[in-house]
Amino acid sequence: MEEDHKEEHFTVAVRVRPFVARELEGAAQSGWEIPGPTSIKEASGERMFIYDNVFDQNTSTQILYEEICEKVIWKALQGYNGCIFCYGQTGSGKTFTMQGSRKDNPGIVPLAIDTIFTYIQQTPDKSFLLRCSYLEVYNECVNDLLNPNLLNLQIQEDKQSGVKVAGATETVCTSVNQVNSLLYMGETHKQIASTNFNMRSSRSHTIFRMIIESKNREYGNADLNVATLNLIDLAGSEGANVHGTAASIHRTREMSFINKSLLTLSTVIMRLSDKTNNAPIPYRDSKLTRLLQPSLDGESKVVIICNISPSLDAYEESLSTLKFAQRAKKIKQVIVKNEVIDSKALITKYEAEIKTLQEKLRE
Ligand code: ADP
Ligand code: MG
């Protein structure tokens, strides 16, 4: 029973996107069948993989969100760290899943923002402070997508606030519109910064981070809860599929850095699932894993969505993604609530904004 309880805090799902126009025009063949809500099978083979969830071509992001992501957001609102990320080769549907496309197909990020603000509105006995940052890990440099002048920021670890990106913009947000304009700003900066946007977006990891502080209004100096929620659109996993071999770390500097972060992530995940190995887990080997450490190291709720193409042409890459998902499945997590007793915490500095937010929401 206890084991079950721990396990459910780590969710690994596979999402198969529909064929896109290019594939339909080329009469692409299906590489995969989905026999049930937790299994996926080779169309022309015997291998079958089982996960917590398998979402087929017809499942909307909204349904996927309600089934596996919303609980992470609820937990973050109660003070537990959360981390949702999309893994998969370029073109497999990571950005579609995380950001969505306009209003008719919202992604996890806008759906999460909606959940957060609805909850705040419905919980007048608590005050909340929401700070957002938008970061990119590109060539093992952490860049601030909210301020294009802030490049190669340093990661700092401190006992009280955990992992911090020194100098990164953290904007206090009091409305859905404000968060949306931050996201828009981040996207614009990303496009301007790159000579080849498509190449860059397939090679960088994008992290939308929300820090949620909350406290009970009724008890003046009650403990604060502080949770960090990371929503991550990972770099394309192609090129990171030869695990740990020198052959996979070659070509350009850029390529090797993607591999470094994704390979380290893969190693960290494998090591977390291997309870028999007590050696230190190599979080420090890449920027991505350093940033994500608090979301992976046993104090957090984690959802990994592994995106694959339906096409037989992408079989090898999809298989590699399914294997990554299999390693991740074994991770067991224990949840620890982040209680902070610190009168200097930011929430006290922002009482005015919080009050305004509450008033706005009641209107
Ligand atoms: P990635 O970010 O992994 O490179 P994208 O999210 O850009 O991939 O998706 C590649 C293409 O497939 C895009 O044109 C996108 O709109 C489309 N697509 C991905 N997932 C879905 C889906 N679930 N339903 C409809 N179209 C999708
Ligand atoms: Mg993308």
TrEMBL record:
One of its GO terms (molecular function) is microtubule binding. GO terms for biological process: microtubule-based movement. Keywords: ATP-binding, Coiled coil, Microtubule, Motor protein, Nucleotide-binding. Residues 9-331 form the Kinesin motor domain. The keyword Transmembrane does not apply. ATP binds at residues 88-95. GO terms for cellular component: microtubule. Belongs to the TRAFAC class myosin-kinesin ATPase superfamily. Kinesin family. This is Kinesin-like protein. It comes from Blepharisma stoltei. The lineage of its organism: Eukaryota, Sar, Alveolata, Ciliophora, Postciliodesmatophora. The chain holds residues 1 to 363 of 615 of the full protein.
